[in-house]
Amino acid sequence: MSKMxxxxxVNGKEVEALAEPRMLLIHFLREELNITGPHIGCETTHxxxxxxxxxxxxxxxxxxFVAQANGANVTTVEGLVNDDGSLSVLQEMFREHHGLxxxxxxxxxxxxxxxxxxxxxxxxxxxxRFGMSGNLCRCTGYQNxxxxxxxxxxxxxxxxxxxx
Amino acid sequence: MIPGVxxxxxxxTITEAAGLLTRFGDDARVLAGGHSLIPMMKLxxxxxxxxxxxxxxxELKGVSITSDEISIGAMVTQHELIQNDALASAVPIIxxxxxxxxxxxxxxxxxxxxxxxxxxxxNDMPGLMQCLDASYEVAGDKGTRRIAARExxxxxxxxxxxxxxxxxxxxxxxxxxGSGYAYEKQKRKIGDYATAAAAVIVGPGxxxxxxxxxGDTPIxxxxxxxxxxxxxxxxxxxxxxxxxxxxxxxxxxxxxxxxLAGVILRRAIERAQGRAN
Lengths: 164, 277
Prior knowledge:
The structure holds two protein chains of two kinds. Chain A has helices at 25-32, 89-96, 106-119, 125-131, 143-163, and strands at 4-10, 13-19, 51-54, 57-60, 73-75. Chain A is of the alpha+beta class. Chain A folds into two domains: 4-78, Roll (Ubiquitin-like (UB roll)), CATH 3.10.20; 89-163, DNA polymerase, domain 1. Chain A is globular. Chain B: This is Xanthine dehydrogenase family protein subunit M.
């Protein structure tokens, strides 16, 4: 089986590797690049634990071949911390509002919520629930995840207003 | 979880893609958003030896809207359909239905062309396209042709698309002024295929209905359309009920689905009538 040369930007860094085209992006991230924040919770594209940001879209990395992502710009939860390594507002709010327990869905949740707030900076509770519906959580019952995302939106909006 | 081995191709034109399909025949599949094909490959239900990725084929992108016709590129994603305000104002039922398909991540990559070409009776767009009387433009080495959505579906995963053809665009006549619309879908949860769903367009002298996941193909009946256009709701519902043949599965026994189909259809008609003027 022939490998192909793959090049992409992951969390701001250019990476190159040889990989089989059939390798799933989630396995490429976890096994080739040791970026193990994104997780695998199913094999039917439901759970969203593998969610990454690919060229500005929330995508389930278990349902993308590495060949398709050749040349793409990928961000994982590891790339969402502040420049100084401290937690982003969204990450901080998940902690503050107890938006996680086992933590297995959290990287996908935060990566998805990051994109959701880029597209809709001031969502209603219903919009958050609908916007997060591609991500399953076994522990929290979602309530605190919704609170965390709404709190992050409020804080980010306040910061934006203060900066203007 | 682990798909079989394949060779990967990324053409940048329809001609190039059609050439690859002709060359590899049955051993090749086109890869659009990949959100039906890749899951099937991960379960080894599909084992193509060649994948022809269409992501770089610019001709398959874009939505164009004229005064009487809408043309949607096959590689336009569900997310793009939803975001397109001009499309939502021309044919609002498309946004309403797309929001009931899958989940946000799937909608960023899943395409309208893949949804209609897949041939799974669970997909929502095929019924909607029959309701809208859309046509599919398909291209192959021998040239292009148009196939009416109402004649495209032959059975579960069997369509009028030949092995060496690519579905390139979907063409829809703008619904008549004053018509109302609704896409009503009953499902167990977000992301599920419909237990039963109905697409309805209705207005003065206008009626069109198609049903999703109540048979091997979407269900469309000329008799139902005629009855609805005359304002005969009971007649339209009866015609649809005679045409459906749901299968029993985890979503419920056939008898339940038949009952549900009637409920969903009446709801869709009522909502569409409320929007007509």
